[in-house]
Structures are given as structure tokens and as C-alpha cells.
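Protein in question filed below.

…
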Amino acid sequence: MGLWYLRLARPLNLMMVAIGVIVGYLVEGGVNLTYGIALAPLAAVFATAGGNGLNDYFDREVDKDAHPVRPIPSGHLTPRKALIFSVICFILAFTIAFLASWICLVIAAVNIGLMTGYEKKFKQVGFLGNLVISYLVASLFLFGGAATGTGINRTLILVPLVILATLGREVAKDVEDLKGDERSRVTMPMKIGQKKASFFASALILLAVLLSPLPYVLGIYGPFYLYVLAPADALFILSAIILFRRINLGEELAKYGMLIGVAAFLGGSLL
């Protein structure tokens, strides 16, 4: 039974969340470690596990065909047990976030509210759902920074950059998944067409590239940030160009650009 709860939580997803929060902590606080570096990732992991359980609870009918081996459609967990699991995870996330800092508590409250709203409504709306997901990704760095207790100056500047890049990738994924989404969602490509949606995704990614030097220009990060940022921006630009012809490759390149960008955030703040 415990294994199925673990699958409900999606451990690989949780690991990526924890890494994002730790990067945010190091970007804001450097190597001056406090208990926040342990509390913040743990709170984020529980919040995300709760969100993943909530996702499976609300998608249980769709998953009977789309993901029949998941814990609920496979019959290993009942919807009620998945919902209880989510509630317990959210309570633990709130408690640990409170111990980390009051800003962490506020972010946790907002994020859990958005996760719930996403599963109940925003996911079906399309672009609004994309926007929620983009904020949630960006908030990981903010959450880690808030756990340092020194403010969120260095991580706050990252939020618009991460939101723009993630939003562009989310719209691109909707273009790629257009046929599969027709039964359950109303996405931007359905409303404005694939070509216009691809153009919009490219514009968002290019805007993120255009704004990406800001942390250096404002004197928040050192020159190392620009050195590592260069290949990330190159991948983003290539992604924006390729999106019009090979949407899946363009979306993959954007993902790798984001990974290198995270390295730039971390290196620029420490070096």
C-alpha cells in the first residue's frame, strides 16, 4: 500500500521541486546555511505531493483510459484515500512552512489554493491554467529564498523570467498535445489556432531572453551569470525559431535552456 502512495506523490517530480527550492535558497542566502535549507524543500515536497494526489483524485475518470496504471484507476487506492493523503500533505506543508518563515507560510497558502483551483477549474480553461503552472514553477525559487530569513531580493528578480520561459513552454506543449486535449480542456491553440499559439509561445520565450540580462544589469548577479546564461539564451532562441516547424523539438530545447538557466541563477549569485 505504501508503494502506491509513493507513486501517487510522484517521487521524481518531488525531487525536482526540492532542487528548485534549494537553488532558490542558495541564490538568496549563499552558503550561509540555516535550518531553512531543510525546512523549505520539505514543505514544498509535501505541498507538491498533495497537489499530485489532488490531480489524480480529480482526473480519476479520465485516467481510466489515459493512465490506467495509476493508483486510483488501477484499484490500488480509492479516491477517498487519495484525497485524505492530499489533505494530510497540505497540513504538513503548512506546518513546516510556518516553521521556516512567515513569507514561506504565505507562499504555501497561495500555492495550495492555486493548486486546488487549478484542479477544479483553471486546468480546463487553458491559458489561465498555463499561467498558474508557470507561477508555481517560479515560486519554488521564491520559496527557497524566503526560507533564508534575509528577504527575497535576489530571487524576486527571477520570477518574471521563469514565468515567461515556462509559460512559453506550456503553450508549446498545448500545441503539441492539441488532439489529446480536445476531450478534456479548452486550450489556447484550440481558440486561436496552432500557428498563432506557436507564435505566442515563441514571443514569450524571446521576451524571457530579452529580459534575462536584467539581474546582471541591476547589479544583483556577477559576470559569471552572463557566461552561463549565454548558452541558455542560445537554446531559447533556437527553440523559439524551431517551434514553428517542429513543436516537440522546440519544446525540448526550451526545457534544456531552463535547466542551464537555473545553473546561471545559482552560479551568478555565488560567484
Q: What stands out?
A: The mean pLDDT is 90. DSSP finds 15 helices and no strands in the chain.
